[in-house]
Amino acid sequence: MEYPQRSLSVDPRSGFCKSNSTFYSKRNPLSLPPNPSIDVTTFISSLPHRGTTAFIDAATGHRLSFSDLWRAVDRVADFLYHEIGIRRGDVILILSPNSIYIPVVCLSVMSLGAVVTTANTLNTAGEISKQIADCNPTLAFTTRQLALKLAAAVSVVLTDDGEEEPSLGVRVVGILSEMMKKEPRGQRVRDRVNKDDTAMMLYSSGTTGPSKGVISSHGNLTAHVARHLSDKLKQEDEIVLCTVPMSHTYGLLGFAMRTVALGTTVVVLRRFELHDMLDAVDKFKATSLIMAPPVLVAMINGADLIKAKYDLSSLRLVRCGGAPLSKAVTEGFLERYPSVEIHQGYALTESNGGGANSGLAEEEAPLRKYGTAGTLTSDVEARIVDPNTGRVMGVNQTGELWLKGPSISKGYFRNEEATNETINGEGWLKTGDLCYIDEDGFLFVVDRLKELIKYKGYQVPPAELEALLITHPCIIDAAVIPFPDKEAGQYPMAYVVRVSESNLSEKQIIDFISKQVAPYKNIRKVAFINSIPKTVSGKTLRKDLIRLATSKL
C-alpha cells in the first residue's frame, strides 16, 4: 500500500502514523483531473461507461437513457444561458420531490458555473423564505403546488406539465419539459470555471443548531465522483432504488452524480414509503437499496409478511447510513434476508461523501465486523482528538473525529464564525462525532459529541441505548435524550414507538435495558410517541424531543 506521505511510517494494518498521530486511507489514491479549470459536469460527461438506462420513474415507468440525459443537459443549460441569462455564480434553487429530471437540472446549472441549492419539500413557507433570504437565488425549479411556498420575487421554472395557474403568485419563466425539447442555439460561450468555484450549497440538517449553507466547490464534487471510480463499488448490472430525498446530500451526490458517472440505472421514488419501496424492488428487479436503520428494523419485524407479498430475490445489497447500525440489527436482518449484503457508511454534508464506508472485498475478506462504518475512503486523512484536552489520540481510543481531504467543503455561506469553529486553519473538519478507529483501520461511530448525556459525571451515548431498544420485539423505533435532573445533572429518557396494539409498559422497558447496561446508563423515564422526528437522512432530531420533554418543566 502506498500512502500520500511516503516518507511517513504508517502501520499497514490500521493506517495509523505515530509520528503525526494521523490515520491514512488504505485505499487506492484518487485520480483527479490535472486541469484546474474544469467543472464537475464536464468531468462526469467525459467518463466512459457502458450504461444504457440512467433513470426510471417508479410511479410511471418512464425511462431516461444516458444519451437522452446528456442531450437534455445541453438543452437546459443553453436555455438558462441564452433565454434567462444565468451566469457563473448565480444561485439556483431546486424545490421539488424526487424526479428523474433533478439530475438534468443539477448538471445543467453546474455546467454554467452557477450554484445549486436545494430545499426540503416538507419545509414551511417561512423556513424556505429564510433560506431564500440567506442565499438569494436568481431562479427556482419547482412544481406548481410547491411554487405556492415561494416568495413572489423569485422567478420560477416549472418542473411539472399542465395549465399555468394565475394564482401561483410567482413569475414563471420556463417549463422544464419544453426546455428539454428546444434545440441549442449552437456553441455556447462558457464562463471560465475554476475547481475552487462554488458548485453546490446544501443546507446542513440542523440536528444540533440552525441550518447553515455548506459551500462545496467543483473540486470537492469532482473528488467525490473520483472516489467512487477509485473504489469501483458498482455491481455488475446494478439497479439502485433511490429512496432518499434528492434535496439531501446523499440523494443529490449519490444519485444525481455518482450513478451517472458509473453508468448505473436508478429507479426513483418520489417519496419514501416502505411498501412503495418494496413494490419497486419487485417490479423493477432492483439490486440495491439505500436506507436508515429504522427501515431495516421494519423489514426485520415484518419479514414474513414482506416475503409473502413481494419478490425480493433480485436484491443483493443494502447500503445503510444516517445513524449507527448495531450488531443485533445487522445480524437480525441477515438472518431474515441471508442473500443480501449490508454495507455501511459515514459522511457529512460538509465532507461531500468523504469519510468511511464498507464493501471492499479485499479489505474485508478475512474480517467480519458489525457496527462499523467501514474504512477511510480514498485520500481521506483522519484524527481522533480528545474534545476536552485537544490531545490527538491513537488506535482504539475514543474522541472527536476530524477529517481532511480533497472533498472537504470550503465552509459555511456568509458565516465565518461557524466556518472557523468547524474547519481549522490546516483544513481539518471537526465532525462533532465521537468515534474510534480500531487496529484494522475500521471506523466506529459512538455518538454525536454534543448529544452525550452527562449523568453524575459519566458520559452516556444515546445511540447505544437506542440500538438496544429497537431489538425489543414490541418496539418499532426509539430515541434517547438527556432529561434535566437536580441531583444527577441529566439522566437518559426514552421516547418509544410501540408495535400496534402492544401494551409494553414503561417499567418493562426500563427493566429490559437495565439488564444489559451499566447502572449509570439506565433509562429512568419513558414516553410513548407515534413517530420519532427525523431529518430526511434519518438522523434523530433529539432537540425537538428535548423541547417536547422539557416544555412542562
Quick overview of this protein structure:
By secondary structure, the chain is an alpha/beta fold. The strands form five sheets. The chain has a 16-stranded mixed beta sheet that branches. The longest helix has 19 residues, at 66-84.
CATH class of the domain at 64-217: Alpha Beta
Distance separating the two termini = 57 Å
- Derived from helix and strand composition plus strand pairing, the structural class reads alpha/beta
Task: Tell me the strand percentage band.
Answer: 15-25%
Stretches where pLDDT falls below 50 for ≥5 residues? none
- The tally of helices reads 16
Estimate the helix proportion, in percent. Answer: 25-40%
This entry's quaternary arrangement is single chain
Average pLDDT confidence is 88
CATH architecture of the domain at 64-217: 3-Layer(aba) Sandwich
List the SSEs and their pairings.
Elements (H helix, E strand, L loop, with lengths): L15 E2 L4 E3 L15 H6 L7 E5 L5 E3 H19 L6 E5 L6 H10 L3 E4 L6 H11 L3 E4 L12 E4 L12 E5 H4 L18 E6 L9 E5 H14 L7 E4 L6 H14 L2 E4 L5 H11 L3 E4 L1 H9 L1 H7 L7 E4 L6 H10 L4 E6 L9 E2 L3 H4 L9 E3 L4 E5 L6 E2 L5 E6 L6 E2 L3 H7 L6 E9 L4 E7 L4 E3 L2 E3 L1 H8 L5 E11 L3 E10 L7 H9 L10 E4 L13 H9 L3
Parallel strand pairs: 3-13, 5-6, 5-7, 7-8, 8-9, 12-13, 12-14, 14-15, 15-16, 28-29
Antiparallel strand pairs: 1-2, 2-19, 3-4, 10-11, 11-22, 16-17, 17-18, 18-24, 19-20, 19-21, 21-23, 23-24, 25-26, 27-28
Helix pairs in contact: 2-3, 3-7, 6-7, 9-11
